[in-house]
């Protein structure tokens, strides 16, 4: 059991270890946000003011994130195809480990 | 902005003949690409023993030239040499071409590309929650993911690197993998065409 329970009720975290709060079997790390939605787009950059003929494919993601406070924020990001492939690989690894733990 | 090259630009570029060494030519080419600054103008004027006004024009023309090469994606010596007028000093033309080709990828990286924040780093950790204030014994895996993104056009005040940390349950992770799988499928479909 977390030793900081009373401290948590009072609004403080007495020791610096993370405090877990149960919410119908959804365990929320109080310091981390929760990913609520992920939208994606596969695009092709055709041209820009710096390069007339870019022909560069990219993946962009729009992440909807719920902060511990409950506030929802959005983060948009872009990545190249090699970056996306590594991104995908990393998530597959996470899932594989989650499976075995 | 991709400005065209004029005959005036080539006149200015011939000022490079006043350089004390090939390294001096290389230095001014590389620095002009990044920005046209007062300090660079002064240094160039001093190094080349030319008036500041001429140094400024030389730097501006070099800047236009290096951006022109990137805009039109000129990647071979022949393509770059073709940009110069016939009458242009032959060995200087070759030297400038060589410098532009050598620095091509660095010059490209220095350009401000219009884009959303670019993914810089992905770090993650799988935790096993073994207990909480309401359940003394449990074994629920959870994943903490940290994304670092670099904004290519940061606001004056803001930091260009932003960090997002999220916690993912098994279900969220599966949903994400589903989405990523669809992107991969789309990529294969597009590549096949």
TrEMBL record, chain A:
Coiled coil feature spans: none
Role description: Scaffold protein in the commander complex that is essential for endosomal recycling of transmembrane cargos; the commander complex is composed of the CCC subcomplex and the retriever subcomplex. May modulate activity of cullin-RING E3 ubiquitin ligase (CRL) complexes. Down-regulates activation of NF-kappa-B. Inhibits TNF-induced NFKB1 activation.
Organism: Fundulus heteroclitus (Killifish)
Protein name: COMM domain-containing protein 6
Similarity-based family: Belongs to the COMM domain-containing protein 6 family.
Gene Ontology molecular functions: NF-kappaB binding
InterPro entries registered for this protein in UniProt: COMM, COMMD4/6/7/8
PROSITE patterns membership: COMM
COMM domain boundaries: 34-101
Pfam families on file: COMM_domain
TrEMBL record, chain B:
Limits of the COMM domain: 118-191
Organism of this sequence: Fundulus heteroclitus
Pfam families per record: COMM_domain, COMMD9_HN
Domain of life: Eukaryota
Protein name: COMM domain containing 9
């Amino acid at each position: 059991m977390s030793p900081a329970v009373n401290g948590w009720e009072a609004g403080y975290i007495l020791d610096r270890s993370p405090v877990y709060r149960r919410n119908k079997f959804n365990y929320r790390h109080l310091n981390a946000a929760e990913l609520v939605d992920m939208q994606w787009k596969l695009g092709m950059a055709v041209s820009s003011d710096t390069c007339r003929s870019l022909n560069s494919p990219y993946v962009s993601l729009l992440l909807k994130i719920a902060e511990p406070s409950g506030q929802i924020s959005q983060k948009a990001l872009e990545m190249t195809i090699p970056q996306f492939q590594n991104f995908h690989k990393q998530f597959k690894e996470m899932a594989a480990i989650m499976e075995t733990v | 902005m991709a400005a065209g090259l004029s005959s005036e630009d080539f006149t200015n570029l011939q000022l490079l003949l006043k350089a004390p060494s090939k390294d001096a030519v290389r230095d001014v080419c590389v620095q002009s690409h990044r920005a046209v600054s007062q300090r660079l103008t002064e240094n160039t004027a001093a190094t080349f023993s030319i008036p500041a006004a001429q140094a400024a024009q030389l730097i501006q023309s070099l800047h236009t030239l290096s951006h022109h090469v990137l805009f039109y994606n000129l990647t071979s010596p022949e393509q770059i040499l073709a940009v110069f007028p016939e009458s242009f000093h032959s060995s200087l033309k070759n030297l400038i071409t060589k410098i532009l080709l050598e620095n091509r990828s660095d010059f490209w990286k220095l350009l401000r590309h219009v884009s959303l924040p670019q993914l810089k780093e992905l770090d993650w950790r799988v935790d096993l929650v073994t207990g909480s204030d309401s359940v003394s014994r449990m074994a629920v895996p959870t994943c903490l993911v940290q994304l670092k993104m670099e904004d290519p056009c940061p606001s004056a005040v803001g930091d260009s690197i932003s960090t997002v940390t999220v916690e993912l349950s098994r279900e969220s992770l599966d949903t994400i993998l589903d989405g990523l799988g669809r992107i991969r499928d789309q990529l294969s479909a597009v590549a096949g065409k």
